[in-house]
Design goal:
Elements (H helix, E strand, L loop, with lengths): L4 E5 L7 E2 L15 E5 L1 H5 L3 H11 L15 H4 L18 E3 L1 H7 L3 E6 L9 H17 L6 E5 L3 H13 L2 E7 L5 H9 L3 E5 L3 H11 L5 E3 L6 H6 L1 H9 L7 E5 L4 H16 L7 E7 L4 H7 L26 H10 L3 E5 L1 H12 L7 H15 L8 E6 L7 H9 L19 H19 L1
Helix pairs in contact: 5-6, 6-7, 10-11, 11-13, 14-15
Length: about 450
């Protein structure tokens, strides 16, 4: 059965369409963002049961490329791309972490973390980049003049772009804000052969530059204003429901920076509803760092206005964004999903990440933002303790070891409640025994 997808303007008064092999990022008619739309009538000719069985049969299989968590849903993602042009590292299929101990600590009975950082480059960005780079490879095979793919990044997007371009044999270009990303994030694109440009600005400054240089059609834009990225990232919501035996959680909490992931999450869930795989939608909660919270400020005004801000330095560096590209799509999604936007201070996000780590997690600071917001919403009665809650963990904690070291050394700008400093001792048995007795007694008292 033939399926079709295209770019479509999000402006309801415009709705202009463009082929997916067009080099285009905004509507030529009105300037609005684009989104990928699918022939839903064709998709709906197969029953919900048929789709569920197909997705289950493919899930984590060795059948190329369908074992990928993204490409196992190819008909819903990028149906026209040739399998020979798919660039996949078998992304997706990340595990759900049952946060039972942490849930009991904060007062929620059914809490799970979707560990999107358990991926090839260590973040959820792999899900979108496999789609974008595959489409670029398809376009090059059709004669498009693309010589390189470029992005502005706070770290994770650049890592994903570099690794997928390396696998495809396509040159990547990444623009990074100098001194504002972790060493681990910087070394990833360097190792994968990207042309790395470290600019003396913040992410928003990098974004302004990359939008200008990609007016040259030989350099293709890979940021989330390119809705091909959203198509891969929308599988997060689909996969969560699949992993819960096609049951929908009550609440999904997601960190928000450039906000493409918010509309991506909503897009996948809406497709499931429209094709009949689910009958209800979860509430979507967007969590922002207090120092980079333009969406939250707009939410407090019922989205009547939106004003970009100058984002301040935050431990959650990947969401240190004051002028998010995908703001229109995010606001639309929040309204569709009866959503909530909340923010967290630096101390709240750091403590939440560290407390989660004591229960077996290994959180990035952005996941810390989501966990801190969860704690606040439970205390405020906006999330009930009996609700089924999923937190999207966006990146692997190993990308942010400096953040963790500084927390446990107590060298951040606030008290670190759960700091766990190494105990330095002489190499004597009696000294070790004495330290053990004291430390274990202290921990027993804390756990009473």
């Amino acid at each position: 059965m033939g399926f079709n997808a295209w770019f479509q303007c999000i402006n309801e008064q415009c709705r202009a369409r463009y082929p997916l092999n067009s080099i285009i990022y905004r509507c030529k008619s009105c300037g609005s963002l684009l989104e990928v739309r699918h022939d839903m009538e064709a998709l709906a000719r197969s029953s919900a049961v048929t789709w569920m069985k197909l997705f289950e049969d493919r899930y984590k299989s060795t059948q190329w490329p369908y074992g990928s968590g993204v490409w196992g849903k190819k008909e819903w993602i990028l149906p026209q791309v040739d399998n020979d042009n798919i660039v996949s590292l078998y992304e997706g299929g990340s595990n759900l972490f049952w946060a039972e101990r942490f849930g009991k600590m904060i007062g929620v009975e059914n809490l799970w973390l979707k560990l999107c950082g358990n991926s090839h480059s260590g973040s959820f960005k792999d899900l979108g980049m496999t789609v974008l780079v595959s489409q670029v490879k398809q376009m090059i095979s059709e004669g498009a003049p693309i010589k390189a793919v470029a992005c502005a990044s706070t770290g994770d997007t650049s890592a994903a772009l570099a690794v997928y371009c390396a696998a495809a044999g396509i040159q990547s270009i990444v623009l990074l804000p100098r001194g504002k990303i972790s060493v681990a994030q910087l070394v990833q694109p360097i190792a994968n052969g990207a042309l790395v440009l470290s600019l003396d600005t913040d992410f928003d400054g990098c974004m302004r530059v990359v939008k200008e240089i990609t007016k040259d059609e030989t350099i293709y834009l890979a940021n989330s204003m390119n809705s091909l990225r959203i198509e891969g990232q929308k599988t997060v919501g689909i996969e969560i429901v699949q992993q819960f035996d096609w049951e929908v959680p009550d609440v999904i909490i997601i960190p928000g920076g450039n906000l493409g992931n918010v509309s991506a999450l909503g897009s996948g869930l809406l497709m499931m509803r429209d094709i009949g795989l689910i009958t209800k939608l979860p509430r979507i909660v967007v969590a922002q760092a207090e120092r980079a919270n333009p969406l939250y400020r707009s939410y407090l005004k019922n989205f009547e206005t939106f004003e970009p801000i100058q984002a301040q330095k935050t431990l959650a560096s990947a969401i240190q964004i004051g002028d998010p590209v995908s703001i229109e799509k995010a606001i639309r999604t929040i309204k569709q999903f009866n959503g909530i936007v909340a923010d967290a201070t630096e101390e709240e996000l750091a403590d939440a990440a560290a407390l989660g780590d004591t229960t077996g997690m290994f959180n990035c600071p952005h996941t810390g933002v989501a966990l801190a917001v969860l704690i606040k919403l439970i205390k405020a009665g906006k999330i009930d303790k009996a609700e089924h809650v999923v937190v999207i963990s966006t990146a692997h904690g190993l990308k942010f070891t400096d953040f963790k070291v500084r927390y446990h050394e107590g060298t951040l700008d606030f008290p670190c409640t759960y700091a766990n400093k190494p105990i330095e001792l002489p190499a004597r048995v009696d000294a070790v025994q004495e330290a053990l007795e004291h430390a274990l007694q202290k921990r027993r008292k804390q756990n009473v």
